[in-house]
Amino acid sequence: MLIDIQQSRRVHTFSQDDFDAFARLSGDHNAIHLNGEFAAAHTPFRGPVAHGMLLYTVFEGMLTHLAPNARLAVSTLMFPAPTYADEAIEFSLALSVAEGNQARRARFQAMRRADGIITCEGDARLVEGHR
Question: Parallel, antiparallel, or unpaired: how do β-strands 88-98 and 104-112 relate?
Fold first, then answer.
């Protein structure tokens, strides 16, 4: 049984400019993230979607505030639904320990506030030490 010991939530709305800036930084210029006409015509999505790693960096930032000397060793990371520009996304991160065990874990998810759909979720072991 996992026991939550710390939690954090934040809401963020990404813009297409954020997607474009992340593409420049990461080198991932896939049209699914940058070109609305392409995304609508050639994918199951209605427009450009966020880079998965852009979402993941929000969780890393939240972890920095909760556990400054820990980092995530990801066990699972899934993107069950798209994250679009100009939609409010609620990010949540819960740190927990297993009963009788000192190893900490993190559970995280991103949810579209408009419809409650989970767009990113994962689970990770925390690795202690300097970042």
Answer: antiparallel
